[in-house]
Design a protein that fits this description.
single chain, about 170 residues, alpha+beta, Nuclear Transport Factor 2, Chain: A, five-stranded mixed β-sheet, 3 helices, about 40% helix, about 30% strand, elongated
Length: about 170
Amino acid sequence: MKPQKLLFLISLTLILGLMACNQTAPAKLEANKNIVRQFSEAFNNHDYQALDGIVAPNFIRHSQATPDVHISSLEAFKQFCKMSAESIPDMKGVIEIIVAEGDFVAVYATFTGTQTGPMGPFSATNKKMESKTMAFFKLEDGKITELWIEWDNLAMLSQLGHFPPPK
């Protein structure tokens, strides 16, 4: 085989390989976004068993909004979700924007709910809240491994009647 023909075949193989990668990348990004949508649905429906298929066992949650809450496993996260549901049982998150890049999915969402149970040191107020929230999910092998989530705690506490604190 002539060197030019061999070079052409190698180049063609590389180009077709790169094209195949570019065609599968959008599919992976869409799959990652769907996993995050499933996560949101499981949270909204209090279906914590559904998290087993989409969240890694060594899952880590990061949040400046709750600096004293340390979550470094799927089971600890499920306990946190159950505790949150006792405080605000009707809490729902609605994803407004979802963007995927590489192994990350970014979400801008609105959470709403009524505080009918105690929340940390705060007693129930039966008041409603609405909170804009931003979250970043890291995925590996089709499972969520890390979550960074932030919201305006001051606005939420104000809406629930916990801020300013009573004198």
